[in-house]
Amino acid sequence: MNRGTLSEELGRARAGQRKTVNALMLGLCVVMTLLAVAPLLWILIYVIHKGGSEITWTFFTNLPTPVGIPGGGIVNALVGSAETVGLGLVVSAPVAVLAAFYAASHPDSGLGLALRFATDVLSGVPSIVMGIFAYTLIVLPMRRFSAFSGGIVLGFIMLPTIIRTTEEMLRLVPNSLREGSLALGAAEWRTSLSVLLPAAANGVLTGVMLAIARGAGEAAPMLFTAFGNPFFSTALNQPIATLPLTIYSYAISPYSDWKAKAWGAALVLIMLVLVLNAAARGLVWWRARRLGGQLR
Amino acid sequence: MNRESAPETAHRPPSEGKTLFRAWRHGDLVSDILVRLSSIGVVVLVGSIGYELWTHSAESRLAFGLRFLVTAQWDPALKQVFGALPFIQGTLVTSLVALVIALPMGLGTAIFLAEMAPAWLRQPVGFLVEMLAAVPSVVYGVWGLFAFIPSFVFPLALGLRDSLGFLPVFAGPVFGPSRLAASLVLAIMILPTIAAVSRDVFSAIPQAQREAALALGATHWEMISQVLVPYGLSGFLGAAVLALGRALGETMAVTMVIGNTLDLSPSLLHPGYTMASLIANEFTEATGNLYLSALIEIGLVLFFITLILNFLARLLVWRVSRRAAGEVRV
Amino acid sequence: MNDGAVARRTNEEALTEARYGALFTEGNALTMGDTKIAVQGLNVFYGKFRAVGDIAINIPDHRITAIIGPSGCGKSTLLRALNRMTDLVPGARTEGRVLLDGKDILAPGVDVVEIRRRIGMVFQRANPFPKSIFDNVAYGPRLYGTRGSQLEEVVERSLRSAALWEEVKDKLRHSALALSGGQQQRVCIARAIAVEPQVILMDEPASALDPIATLRIEELMRQLVSQYTIVVVTHNMQQAARVSDLTGMMMMRPDRTGELIEFGVTAQMFTRPKDKRTEDYITGRFG
To answer: Could you tell me if A290 lies within 8 Å of chain C, comparing CB atoms?
Structure first.
């Protein structure tokens, strides 16, 4: 029996070494994963620890107070965030959904490809550059910082998120459902609408939630659009406070009670963002399970 | 005997959505116009960004030309000379160091999630990694400034200075906010990107490759490192490029931990400045058109760099799916 | 029994007589040689589902054993259990014993990596790595530390054994993916041979290939059997009849568990099968 040059001894000698390397490297991957997740836990623990004490009813209902005067709150920032994000949604969600429909239905057309490319580009543009864009486009002509410009820039930033999620949801619709509806006669478009709309609605909802989470957390583009406002304001043509802006200005201030407020506001923001993301993910998972059931 | 005639659903059109929507459109022409307009609008938006940045940086571009990119002076007060070099350097250094740290960690995490973790562990851990990506930049900044730097980065910097301080890269004096702090925070922020994209790349590799390697008597790690990683290499590179693009544009976290000081020394332990943090810091204080236009030009440079990187990243990731589909090119 | 079946049987008898000569008597099943792999009471479960039940066969050394049967009857599962590739399926469980030269490979603590070196596998679809031909064949030996001129020798020897050397000797550094389907499959065979296994498992190795490439693979199998033990799963009965020394017939029970209903010398199985189901399958009444 010709066994050639690969001696059993050679194989056996290296076998132990190979096993060790295997265990070591795989163990290293586990360590890397732990190291990757650790900062998240650190941040959460820290924000809760430092910001928890700030969370009182007055925190949510009061306006900011001057340094040294207790009882300040962030109601103006909360309202401001809601307003700017809301404006951004109103502007971007309809456009995003329609564009996603187009992308899902004409993936190979010139416009479809351009759209896909544009969405990619948009999602990669740093938000501060978006801020400059909104500044030149809106703030300069208006000659003032405003809630309006803040809302618009958030809308631009949220656009690719909603487009992408809606499009993915549309493509998740099983082909059997689509073909089934196509097999019908005259009322084709209406039936197909009734098939696609639920799927789209799910995608839009997910996209909107993720977009809100993204938009609510943006500070950089708001620095020179919404600008921030220590007073309460909802006027569209006036500067407005937002949660991230407040966090930023309080955190870099030299006053310890303002820094404490920054932690409180950070806790509110991070909770909002994490809950929205988790809910969006849950929605996707739930939807995938329902569709999976239908595929039988 | 079967006399039924089956409905005509045999051949599926290349994009069945097309037929679907052709039918849909017959019902509603107005919707069609709206859909097209929206799509065109999005494309136009991207062009407008470039356009606005270009036109509003005109004054600076005309004054300095291409020298802007290589001038190391930034003097708004006295001489009104502006040069982007220190900020380009600061951006590149912090982002590249962040990438060097995040790449192995992200890959390791992806390997764990894609090739090692049992099914029940995959979802929760994957969720945690994604939540890392969801944390707003400003929260990273606050945590970085008040927790991460004092507890971790500062002691680390001291240690580096003490042990490796002869290297210019770790030369003292040691500051709190520093390029090192920014690089570390950036690494944490871009790691989810690398992990998520790499995980997708692993999923795209056909099972047959794994079986072939294992059937030859390879260990788990040998299969991963010698078969899977080379197979998906362009995808992993794409993940790295994508992450780099994110790092370059990060603003709030960086501006809160980097110190925002024009410092030309090569030391990581010193404070620094990036393009994004410069804009964040000085935009609202900019006096005079030249100053503002210089800042906008920096925004333009940032725009172009991220544009190119994003394009490159998509291209690289796309190559892996082509290979999995059976393209011949190695 | 219709006329066609009678005619077919006579042809097959002649064929096998020519091939096996002295072996073509029932009692000579024992001259098939020493048992290389003894399977005893093998059951493979995917979760709660039993894919393969109560398999007991002795696979002889230096022979080609074929496993045939209709699709879904568990042939591939049985094959994969032999080199523990079933372990890769989450939720899979194997019971029973598989003895390689008398040692149970399913025992706890056994080195699976080493087993897979000794029992190699060729898959239904050729799955070369996206590397050069050389690097594909050299992959296994490299793991074991083979280098330099020794490595080149191993690669050449393996490619010769796989009847591919002459065709690729001038383009060893070219990508394996640039080869035709049949050539890629032979690269995979060379790759499997390069680690010097004792057994080669083949899971429908020619089903994705054209007839000419298929015949070349079958010729290759007959050449390889002098050095290795070969177990081949095939849905092609004619192939099993042409190529194998022993054949096992598998079928699906009503509860969808696969079982071995007959196992014996190929010549005998195809001319005078003991089980009516085997006869039905072979004469094409179903499946």
So the answer is: no
Distance from CA of B207 to the nearest CA of A (A): 19
Candidates B48, B132, B251; nearest CB to A126: B251
Residue C21: its pLDDT value, please? Answer: 42
Model confidence, pTM:
0.85
* Angle (nearest 5°) at CA B225 between B223 and B228: 65
Residue A251: which of B26, B141, B302 has the nearest Cβ? B141
Is B283 in CB contact (< 8 Å) with chain A? yes
CA distances from B319 to A113, B232, B235, B314 (A): 18, 9, 7, 9
Read off the pLDDT band of B319 (50, 70, 90). confident
Strand-pair partners of B81: B75
pLDDT tens-digit map of A153-210: 999 999 999 998 888 877 766 655 555 555 554 344 555 566 666 767 777 888 899 9
Size of interface A-C (CB pairs under 8 A): 32
Q: Which of A95, A125, A274 sits opposite B306 (nearest CB)?
A: A125
Q: Which of A77, A109, A221 is closest to A158 using CA atoms?
A: A221
Please check whether residue A135 is in contact with residue A224, taking contact to mean a CB–CB distance below 8 angstroms.
Answer: yes
The predicted pLDDT at position C32 comes to 66
Tell me chain B's radius of gyration from C-alpha atoms.
25
Cβ separation of C145 and A10 shorter than 8 Å? yes
CA-to-CA distance for B201 and B317, rounded, in angstroms? 8
Q: Minimal CA–CA distance to A155: which of A90, A77, A78, A245?
A: A90
For the purposes of burial, counting CB atoms within 10 Å of the CB of B3, is it exposed (0-12), middle (13-18) or buried (19 or more)? exposed
Neighbours of chain A (3+ CB pairs under 8 A): B, C
Distance to chain A for B170, nearest Cα, Å: 24
Q: Which residue of A lies nearest to C118 if distances are taken between CA atoms?
A: A8
Tens-digit pLDDT profile for residues A104-160:
777 788 888 888 888 988 988 999 999 999 999 999 999 999 999 999 999 999 999
Read off the amino acid at residue B320: V
Residue C39 CB contacts under 8 Å (≥ 6 apart), including other chains: C55, C56, C57, C58, C59, C82, C96, C97, C98, C99
Determine whether the interchain pair A4/C157 forms a contact, defined as Cβ–Cβ distance below 8 Å.
yes
Cross-strand pairs, C132: C175
Gap from B54 CA to chain A (nearest CA, Å): 10
What are the chain C neighbours of A21 within 8 Å (beta carbons)?
Answer: none
Provide, as residue numbers in chain B, all residues whose Cβ is less than 8 Å from the Cβ of A133.
Answer: 48-49, 52-53
Residues of B in contact with A120 (CB under 8 A): 310-311, 314
Helix (H) or strand (E) holding C250, with range, is strand C246-252
Lowest mean pLDDT across A184-193, B83-92, B137-146, C222-231: A184-193
CA B266 vs CA B90, B94, B269: distances in Å: 10, 11, 9
| Phi then psi dihedrals of residue A220, to 5 deg | -55, -50
Place of tokens 């910082």: A145
Domain boundaries, given as residue ranges, for chain B:
86-288+298-329
Share of chain C above pLDDT 90, in %: 53
A248 neighbors B141 (Cβ within 8 angstroms): yes
Residues of B in contact with C131 (CB under 8 A): 230, 330
CATH number of B86-288+298-329: 1.10.3720.10
Q: How far apart are CA B237 and CA B244, in angstroms?
A: 10
Residues B197 and B102: their CA atoms lie apart, in Å, by 13
Residues of chain B found within 8 Å of residue C143, distances taken between Cβ atoms: 216-218, 222
What radius of gyration, in Å, describes the C-alpha atoms of chain C?
19
Dig out the tokens for C102 from the structure: 């008398």
Better-scored residue on pLDDT, C121 or A200 = C121
